[in-house]
Amino acid sequence: MLESKRRAHPRSTWVMRGAAASLLLAAAVAAVVVTAPWQGAAPGGAGDGAIAPAQAAAAPAPRGLAEVEALPTAPKSAPPHVPPPIDRKGPATLRVDLEAVETTMQLADGVEYTFWTFDGTVPGPMIRVREGDTVVVRVTNRDGSTAPHSIDLHAVTGTGGGAIYTQTMAGGATAFVFKALAPGLYVYHCATAPIPMHIANGMYGMILVEPADGLPPVDREYYVMQQEVYTAAPYGQKGLQTFDWQALWDEPPEYVVFNGRVGSLAGGSVLRARTGETVRIYFGVGGPNLTSSFHVIGEIFDRVYMLGSLTAPPLTDVQTVLVPPGGSVVVDFAVEVPGRYTLVDHALGRIHKGAIGELVVEGPERPDLFRPLR
Ligand SMILES: [Cu+2]
């Protein structure tokens, strides 16, 4: 099926499509890199700075790179972990440093892929700031990278979400500042041409802009994202795999994975909870193409913050949620019954492409809620 669809496009046709797309995107990047950084920097915003009170309280938005180093850093964490809730009562001025790293990692057991990453993980780190914060984003691109990289954060109000100021060559560094105006759970991704390739290679993550009043407390928070990987060779072929342009355009990927690889949430890396606890999953889709029908087998989401909106009232008692590429959802659920709960995209064919993970709940049995009849 996949092969016949690919053959439907004569090679000359897709080469031309590729050339045209490259020209367009190259023009966009060229237009971008001539723009002077720091034009239109956000106005000064001071905060009470619970993270580093002495620094943040007195810190207006920096006027230039020289002032950035002294800023306190926003908390960030590698998947599936989430930085702790923010207990500050006011806004702060913070710095987020992200490094573009191209690195070969496991895509599945025995299968390797050269991922393009933020900070060496797929997805990139989860960043946590507060509504009203002034955030300086610094992007460095590790020396030796084969491509320029950048960032577009959907939490940004401003052209390209920051991409116009962060096209960063190998060995280089860029920065911009934005004001986190709207609370929500937002995807970020590399926005260097060809953008879908950079996303499919692993350059995406999420930033949580907490509402000023915070979120309802839960016992455990996890960070999970879905993406496709478009390899030339079929699913499961051992060794180092190569990216396939035609597959990206046609869209049926060989791999659909949570947190960057088959089995990222299995074995010794499962998500864990105990009965009686509440669990929150910050779930997003890097894509670049497929919408997820996110579902946890054996559970019902008590609260669903659809599309990552934290200001609309959450839906209650939901089985499966649609999450578009470049979109997110926050789901809360209590775990009452011990057992193994499976995270899936309920487009279930994708289980066989890797989209499966596990939450293990330990605790005393609850025969009043769930038991076999013999
Ligand atoms: Cu990139």
From TrEMBL:
<dbReference type="InterPro" id="IPR011707">
    <property type="entry name" value="Cu-oxidase-like_N"/>
</dbReference>
<keyword id="KW-0186">Copper</keyword>
<comment type="similarity">
    <text>Belongs to the multicopper oxidase family.</text>
</comment>
<comment type="subunit">
    <text>Homotrimer.</text>
</comment>
<keyword id="KW-0560">Oxidoreductase</keyword>
<dbReference type="Pfam" id="PF07732">
    <property type="entry name" value="Cu-oxidase_3"/>
</dbReference>
<keyword id="KW-0479">Metal-binding</keyword>
<dbReference type="InterPro" id="IPR001287">
    <property type="entry name" value="NO2-reductase_Cu"/>
</dbReference>
<protein>
    <recommendedName>
        <fullName>Copper-containing nitrite reductase</fullName>
        <ecNumber>1.7.2.1</ecNumber>
    </recommendedName>
</protein>
<dbReference type="InterPro" id="IPR045087">
    <property type="entry name" value="Cu-oxidase_fam"/>
</dbReference>
<feature type="domain" description="Plastocyanin-like">
    <location>
        <begin position="102"/>
        <end position="212"/>
    </location>
</feature>
<dbReference type="GO" id="GO:0050421">
    <property type="term" value="F:nitrite reductase (NO-forming) activity"/>
</dbReference>
<dbReference type="InterPro" id="IPR008972">
    <property type="entry name" value="Cupredoxin"/>
</dbReference>
<keyword id="KW-0677">Repeat</keyword>
